[in-house]
Description:
This protein has helices spanning 6-9, 11-36, 40-63, 72-99, 104-129, 131-142, 150-169, 171-179, 181-186, 191-230, 236-268, 278-296, 302-329, 336-342, 347-360, 375-399, 407-413, 419-428, and strands spanning 334-335, 363-367, 370-373. The chain is elongated and about 95 Å long. Strand 2 and strand 3 form a beta hairpin. It is an all-alpha fold and 448 residues long.
Amino acid sequence: MESPLFYFTDPVLxxxxxACMLMCLASSLVGVMVYxxxxxxxxxxxxxxxxxxxxxxxxxxxxxxxxxxxGPLLAAFILIGAFLSxxxxxxxxxxxxxxxxxxxxxxxxxxxxxxxGIGITAASRLQFTxxxxxxxxxxxxxxxxxxxTDLHVLVYACISLLVVALISLMYKELQLITxxxxxxxxxxxxxKTIDTALFILIVLAVxxxxxxxxxxxxxxxxxxxxxxxxQWTNRLSVMLILAALFGLSSGFMGNYLSVExxxxxxxKYPNENIALPTGPMIVLVAMGICFxxxxxxxxxxxxxxxxxxFLFRYKCIEENxxxxxWRINADGDVxxxxxxxxxxxxxxxxELVLFQMRIKGYIFRKSFNVYQLTGQGRxxxxxxxxxxxxxxLYLVDEIGIGAEKVHRNAEEMExxxxxxxxxRLSELLKDPKVDPHQQPIPPSTQKG
Length: 448
C-alpha cells in the first residue's frame, strides 16, 4: 500500500489525483449555491444537456478538420461543444419556465430527457462510422479520471481558481439573493447579472466534471458535498469551506481507493477481472461522507435527533410521574398501587423512571412500593401543574375553546412551555388564580 503522498508525486498518479481534487473543489462550491437555491436537479439536467455537445465537438473535429485524431485539440472541441450545449439547455429551461409557464421540475426533466435522447441517438450513429472516436466519447459519458494528465490539472486549476474568485467577490450578493431575493432587488443588487454569472459557473463545473465522473454521475458531485456540509452548520461561509473540504477529500480518496483496492482485489482474485473505476469511487466516497454527516452531525444528524427525541419523551414521562405523585398526595406517601391507577405504563419502565427520579432527588422511597416527593420534586411537579392549568385557561379565555376540550392539548403543551412563554401567559391572563375547572393555579416559581 502506497503512502498518500505518493499520489501527489508519482508521474502517472499525480495528474488524475490533483485534477479530480480540483474538479471536486469547483463542483462542491458551485453545488452549495445550487443546493441552497433548491435547484438540485439542475446539475443533472445540464450534465445530460452537455452530452450532445460532446458528440457535436467530435463531429466538428472530424468533418471540419479532416483527420483530427485524439489529442488536446479534440479535447478542446469536445469541451467547447459541451459548454455550448449545456448553455443551450439552460436557455431552454429558462424559456420553458419564464415564458411558457412550465413548472421548473418539468422543464428540467424535459431538457434532461431530450438531450439524453439526442445524445444517445447521435452516439449510436458514431459507433458505426467512427468507432475509435466513439470510444473517446464514452469517456465523457461514463468518466475516465485515471487517464488525466498534467494538462488537465492546469485546466482544472484555472477553473477552480475562477470559481473561488467569483464566489469570494460575489459572496454578499449571492448570500442576499439566495436567502432574500426580494430584499436584494430592493437595495439595487443586479440579481439577473449575478444569476447569469452563477449559471455560467454551474455550466463550467458540469462540463469539466464530466471528464472525471461522467454525465450520469456528475450531479452527485454537485450535491453530495453540499448536503454533507449543510448538516454541520447554518452559516453559508462555513458551509462553503466544509463543502470544499469534503469535495477535496472525495477527489483524493476516490483515486486512492480505486488504485489500492483495485490492486488488492487483483492480487486476492487473480483470475477475476475486478476493476474499481476512479469516477464512481469518487462519487461513492462523496456519498459515504454524506451518509456519515446525515447520521452523525451534532445538530441535524439522525442519531442526535433521535437522541433529542428520546430525551424529550423521557422528560415527558418523568414529568407525568411527578404530576401524578403530586395529585395523589403532594405531601405524603404514595403507593405503587395508587400510582399505577393513574399511570398506564409498563412496570419495568415505571421502575426505571422512579429509580432515575430517586437519583435526581425528586422522590425518596420510604418502603417497598411506597414513595414520597422531596421538596425539589414537589417544586417541579407544582410547576408542571401550573403550566398545564395556565394553558387550559388560555385556550378557554383567549381562544374560546370549551373547557371540556382543553385537557388533552394542555397535557402536551405543559412539557414545552418555556419560562418566557409562561411569563407572557401569566401577564396576558392577569396572573390568574384558578383554571377553567375552578382548580387553583399554583403560584409561579420564577425569580424576578
